[in-house]
TrEMBL record:
Keywords: Repeat, WD repeat. Pfam families: WD40 (PF00400). InterPro entries: WD40/YVTN_repeat-like_dom_sf, WD40_PAC1, WD40_repeat_CS, WD40_repeat_dom_sf, WD40_rpt, WD_LIS1/nudF_dynein_reg. CDD domains: WD40. This is Uncharacterized protein. WD repeats lie at residues 83-124, 167-208, 209-250, 269-291, 292-323. It comes from the Bacteria. SUPFAM superfamilies: WD40 repeat-like. The keyword Repeat applies.
Length: 342
């Protein structure tokens, strides 16, 4: 199914709000805040469930409870266009590593794949038996993992949409799914507090890690894949050895349930929580190195690319953070990203 999305889709305006809040960590500062505005058929701005920076670093995709996916410019917050093909809350989105494809999914049980280069809906990836909560591409973009309110994790061929594996999940409320950096493993977690790991190539079960006493909202692998970091409703942030499941460190996050986790540097992770803050942690010791304030609601989504981090969630704003340090040029991609913003 091919469907043109530019010209046929009405844009929803955004407003840049000048920011005066800065992080306490000297090298991290708030660049700007984007206040989303309601769509033409809505009274209130959308709650943001997921945000993802395009691999080239110039654009971001934003998923919301108003059924829309907004494509926006990172540096200015300018709205490029709005995808309005979902029929319910969009819970998850992910760019492929090469930047060619955007996958979106949510409560309408649909997975949609968008061709970034041609500005079209590439295809519908299928109807799922339940809400889709999480998506992830593997390292080379050939596989796409899909997880949600079901007892299985679906692994699809990202090029043709065909099912490769159906993996038996630990429980039927999965909130997060991740491939390891080398693509050899896939891990998922949710309501039961258990991280289940499979061999991504064969689909065989590898191990369970009984990580938390309550729902896990987010997991992430370390840069080398040797560790898994997890956080959730039990207000704990933990690290485990991937190869054995042994717990390395655990730390209380105080009153904050952990809703989002992102690896922002090889030795630093960030978490977003129900205390409306973004907290920065040393990956080795799980010591808190700083926290970033300003949000007025739960920080449900985090993404980082190069020297930029974006946080968002229940307060309907996007906060763009400058992580400091040397600014490397964006990666050279074969996708003419300018066509994605015409």
């Amino acid at each position: 199914m091919f469907k043109h999305i530019l010209g046929a889709t009405a844009a929803v305006a955004t407003l840049i709000v000048p920011s005066v809040t800065f992080a306490q960590m000297p090298l991290v500062k708030l660049s700007h805040t984007v206040q989303l505005k309601p769509g033409v058929d809505r009274l209130h701005p959308p709650v943001v469930s997921d945000v993802e920076i395009h691999p080239a670093g110039k654009l971001m995709a934003v998923a919301g409870d108003d059924h829309y996916v907004r494509i926006m410019e990172v540096s200015t917050g300018r709205l490029i266009f709005t995808l309005r093909d979902h029929e319910d809350w969009v819970c998850a989105l992910k760019f492929s590593p090469d930047g060619h494809t955007l996958a979106t999914a949510g409560k309408d049980h649909r997975l949609l794949l968008w061709d970034v280069q041609e500005n079209i809906q590439l295809r519908a990836g299928g109807e799922f038996p339940s809400v889709v909560n999480a998506l992830d591409f593997n390292h080379d973009g050939t596989r796409l993992a899909v997880a949600g309110f079901d007892k299985s994790i679906a692994i699809h061929d990202a090029t043709n949409g065909k099912s490769i594996h159906t993996l038996e999940a630990h429980g039927n409320d999965i909130r997060t799914v991740r491939f390891s950096p080398d693509g050899k493993l896939v891990a998922a977690a949710g309501r039961t507090g258990v991280i289940r790991i499979w061999n991504a190539e064969t689909g065989t079960f590898v191990r369970d890690i009984p990580a938390h006493s309550d729902r896990i909202h987010a997991i992430v692998f370390s840069h080398d894949g040797a560790k898994i970091v997890s956080g959730g409703d039990d207000r704990q942030l933990k690290t485990f050895v991937t190869s054995t499941g042994q717990q390395i460190e655990a730390v209380s996050t105080g009153d904050a349930k952990v809703f989002s986790v992102a690896l922002i540097r090889p030795a630093t992770i960030a978490t977003g929580g129900s205390d409306n803050q973004v907290r920065m942690w040393d990956l080795e010791t799980l010591s808190e190195v700083d926290h970033l304030t300003g949000h007025d609601g739960t920080v449900a989504a985090l993404t980082a690319q190069g020297q930029t981090m974006i946080s968002s969630g229940f307060d309907t704003t996007l906060r763009v953070w400058d992580l400091g340090g040397p600014h490397s040029p964006p990666p050279v991609l074969t996708v003419p990203v300018s066509r994605f913003s015409n």
